[in-house]
TrEMBL record:
Region (Disordered) location: 322-357
Keyword list, A-Z: Cell membrane, Membrane, Transmembrane, Transmembrane helix
Biased composition (Basic and acidic residues): 324-343
UniProt keyword tRNA processing, yes or no: no
Membrane topology: Multi-pass membrane protein
InterPro entries, A to Z: Virul_fac_BrkB
Native species: Salinimicrobium oceani
Primary residence: membrane
Source organism superkingdom: Bacteria
Protein name as catalogued: Ribonuclease BN
Amino acid composition bias (Basic residues), ranges on this chain: 344-357
TM ranges: 34-58, 97-117, 138-165, 171-204, 216-239, 251-276
Location within or outside the cell: Cell membrane
Length: 357
């Protein structure tokens, strides 16, 4: 009992430290930025994911599953908008060059949101990239593309598992329908939990430029998944009751997608902060990879540059002040000479008047 109480206190302390660090890193602005990028990356991201999973299950089946999942999160209107995005983002196969350029733009667009998410993760770990060379930019895009492929793989796994569960439900329904529905419902929830947790663990492991063990990411990914599922219910309830997109008319589906990505990013950032605090608590060895360094080094360098800039500005101000002081001194000397001249005139006139009388 004492051990459980101690672990609970540690967990609460980690949550508290995570919140303070999360709030200090301004997650609101970063989430808004990523939501903006996600809006433009979403068509490309969806078309690649649908292409990967659709190769095995068929494009229509995958589109239907995405529409169903998105509909549960943010409503039917937004899910229809996503379905239209997938349909309109299809590659033009009229020519080979159109396919090549279209595929290149798809990859660039689909990886944009993960590129921004990577920068946010580096900020959470207080890591900064040493220098953005062409090689490193390509590697970052490849990593981001890998995250897109992971999404496609997880969707594929989800479809396989859903097919198996549906087959089991149909087979066992005649034997024990009530128990079958309950048990398979729990199994479906656990499998969904595992898939989502795997995605978050992959984000925490691969996106930041740090050398991190998988075991360090599991607790943070688990907490993020719990918060994500709770937020899924709350956001769905909020959207259903208040209908925040109704104010925006025809743009309501876009607004709902932005809000969904925004709230999801807030949760992901909190989970990443918790992972950092957990690594500190466990004293895990976490260090930047060869392309990054502690952000404090670059901050000190910027402060040193700023110091040099301030010194130069002070020198200029001192020079201008010296010119001003010199002009003031010359003006004062001229006034003194003029005053002395006037005094001599007055004395001379007084002496002349005295001699006259």
């Amino acid at each position: 009992m004492g051990e459980i109480k101690r672990k609970f206190k540690v967990f609460v302390r980690l949550l508290k430290n995570s919140y303070f660090s999360w709030n200090r890193n301004d997650p609101w602005a970063r989430s808004a930025t990523i939501a903006y990028y996600a809006l433009f990356s979403l068509p490309s991201l969806l078309i690649i994911v649908v292409t990967i999973a659709g190769y095995f299950f068929g494009r229509k089946a995958v589109q239907g599953r995405i529409k169903e999942e998105v509909g549960e999160f943010i409503g039917l209107e937004a899910s229809i908008a996503i379905e239209n995005m997938i349909a309109n983002a299809a590659l033009d196969q009229s020519s080979t060059w159109a396919v090549i350029f279209g595929f290149a733009f798809l990859i660039f667009g689909a990886t944009g949101v993960f590129f921004q998410l990577k920068a946010a993760m580096n900020n959470i770990w207080n890591i900064a990239v040493k220098k953005n060379t062409v090689k490193r930019i390509i590697i970052n895009r490849i990593i981001s593309l890998g995250m897109v492929l992971v999404l496609g793989l997880l969707l594929l796994i989800s479809l396989v598992i859903s097919t198996v569960i549906k087959a089991l439900r149909d087979y066992l329904a005649s034997i024990a329908p009530a128990i079958t529905t309950f048990l398979l419902g729990i199994a479906d929830l656990l499998i969904s939990f595992t898939i989502i947790m795997s995605l978050f663990a992959a984000i925490f492991k691969w996106l930041p430029d740090v050398k991190l063990k998988w075991k360090t990411t599991y607790l943070g990914a688990m907490l993020t998944t719990i918060l994500f599922l709770v937020a899924e219910y709350l956001i769905g309830f909020y959207f259903g009751q208040s209908d925040p997109g109704s104010v925006y008319g025809g743009a309501s589906s876009v607004v709902l997608i932005l809000l969904w990505v925004y709230y999801t990013c807030l949760i992901v950032f909190f989970g990443a902060e918790f992972t950092v605090q957990y690594a500190l608590y466990k004293r895990e060895k976490v260090e930047p990879n060869e392309y990054a360094e502690p952000a404090i080094y670059q901050e000190l360098e910027r402060l040193e540059q700023k110091r040099g800039q301030l010194i130069d500005e002070k020198r200029i101000l001192d020079t201008l002040q010296s010119y001003s002081d010199k002009e003031e001194e010359q003006k004062k000397q001229a006034e003194d000479r003029e005053r002395q001249k006037n005094e001599r005139k007055i004395r001379h006139q007084a002496k002349k008047n005295k001699n006259k009388y």
